[in-house]
Structures are given as structure tokens and as C-alpha cells.
Amino acid sequence: MTVPKRFVIQMNKKVLVIGDGCSDVFRYGKCERLSPEAPVPVFLPSRTTGNGGMAINVVENLKALGVECDVMTNDIRPVKTRYVDEISNQMLLRVDEKDKITPIMQKDLEFFDMKNYVAVVISDYNKGYLSPNDIKWISENHPLTFMDSKKELGWWCQDIKFF
Question: Hey, how many other C-beta atoms are within 10 angstroms of the C-beta on 11?
Fold first, then answer.
């Protein structure tokens, strides 16, 4: 079976991912008793892992599919630490630090030549990196846009091709 050309991403072209980025930290451990001070579990950490989250995770997923990507995201990243019981894999607590994200500058958006990309993926976690006007500008300047947004959708996303 031959895949129609319209469904094939040209692998010599890149995808641009734009959106909020963070650092995801996972602390695994055991909870074998409750605290004598309050009815909360006592967490005994055993290992810590981490990876890029939000837009950075989108880039890693696309790369795993063989897609070459560039990413435009915030320099200072929030840290989301999850405490996970290693036996049940149940997340017990999430602690967010440095949750403020500096908005993207219009000149930074214009720096990337949109015609060098086969598609643009907007990964908007509504943390402040992208405004509705930024998203509108992206969709007006690229014919193939994908978006995952935590914002309530409005006028600014009418030109987005895929949600």
C-alpha cells in the first residue's frame, strides 16, 4: 500500500514547536506509615528522574517519530516536582516552583523564517509565554498549524488548522 503524498511529512523539512517549557522532576519512593504529627504519609525517597516538560516533551515525542524539530520556548523554566509512590505509581504530591514565565517577544517570533518549516506546533499551557495575539500571528504566518492550548478558545485561533 502506498501512502498518498499529502499525508507524508517531508523528512528534509523541520517542524517548529512554540510554547511553554518546564522541567519535570519525578521523585520515587515508598510510603510505609503515616506521620504521628498529622494524617499524612511519610515519604521515603529512593530515586529521582527528570526530563523536559510541556513544549519540550512535545519536541521529544516528535523526535521519537523521526521528525526533526526546532523549539522556541522560555529560557527560565518552572520546575514541577512530583512525588510518586514507587509501588503503586500513585502521584502523592506535585510541587510547582518558579511558575512565572516571561512572555515571548514579537521580535523572537519574527526571527524564525516560517517558510523553513513544514508545520508549526503550538504547545500552549497558558503559563504566559504566548498571548492570543502571538498565536494569531503564528497561524497567519504559516499555512499548517497544530495547537494544543489550555486557554479558552476564541477569535485568535480561527486560522489554526488542527487542534
Answer: 10
Half-sphere CA count of 15, side-chain side, radius 13 A: 25
Single-letter amino acid code for the residue at 127: K
The Cα–Cα gap between 139 and 154 comes to 13
pLDDT tens profile 96-133: 998 889 999 989 888 888 889 999 999 999 999 999 99
How do the domains of the chain map onto residue ranges?
A: 5-157
Q: Taking the domain 5-157, which CATH number applies?
A: 3.40.1190.20
Rounded CA separation 136/162 (Å): 14
Q: Write out residues in the chain with pLDDT < 70, as ranges.
A: 1-12
Cβ(37)–Cβ(22) below 8 Å: no
| Buried-state track 76-105, b at ≥16 Cβ within 10 A, e below 16 | ebbebbebbbbeeeeeeeeeeeeeebeebe
Q: How far apart are CA 131 and CA 103, in angstroms?
A: 8
Query: Average per-residue pLDDT in the chain?
Result: 91
Are 129 and 25 in contact by the 8 Å Cβ rule? The answer is: no
Residue 62: closest CA among 74, 73, 51, 71: 71
